[in-house]
Amino acid sequence: MGKTVTTYLIDGDPKGTQYAFISNKICQMFVVPRSNLSYLNTQEKLQKPAFYVLIGEDEDTKPKAYIGETENFCERVKDHDSKKTFWQKALIFVSKDADMTKADVQYLEYKAIKEAKEVNAFVLNENKQTPKVPNLPEYQQDSMDEFFEDVKFLTSFIGCNIFEQSQPKSEHLFYAKGRGCEAVGFYSSNGFTVLKGSVIAQTTVPSLSWKEKRELLLKEYTAMEDDKLIMTSDKVFSSPSAAADFCLGRSSNGWAEWKDKDGNTLDSVYRKQLE
What are the counts of helices (DSSP H) followed by strands (DSSP E) for the chain? Predict the structure, then answer.
């Protein structure tokens, strides 16, 4: 079933301040870059109870986030601006209709931290503990569960995968093997995703042009298990070749290295779409 999402670019910049909401839904998401926090003073909604995520992204490292709740985001963010250096933008979620209560946003914070830690796509080292479940009536929990599903959709809509990963169909899976590597992934409009649980080559050949970056990514996305280097979370790469380089620890043509269960290369499978 299709969905209609309304997005308004406050300053006309697709990477700037904006808000978005799904038609016939009450969840509204504000995206505010750290460089434009003065915008918060113009929005009465952001001076009331809200659930929020601070995002810090760097293509060379695993992205970071802080998840929180507040009775007044406009005031709360002043403390974050002075004490937290990592973040570049804030995602703030409010109700378009009636204001949420303190218990509502505490419940959303609980849900968000729990799910983000399970997905493990972002570093949450400043959310050291998962909050306890607040005491909400059953009907209100159901309402906030539905609200959180819209939160997940809107974060995904702007390309932020903190709460969920794409679920590929089995026939779309591709495999890379060699140098001790047994990696699994899939190709999509976002790039090539190497899946959690993939076995990665432990060494990097000296000739790989981005050897240092690979070593850094290995520290953040893998762990040793039974003498094997295992992906601890999914990782999206901009191209199949970058994904293959990372997994195999050497320069490679990802379109040829990634093969499905029948031995078809990624190149041959996707080229068929044009025939």
Answer: 7, 13
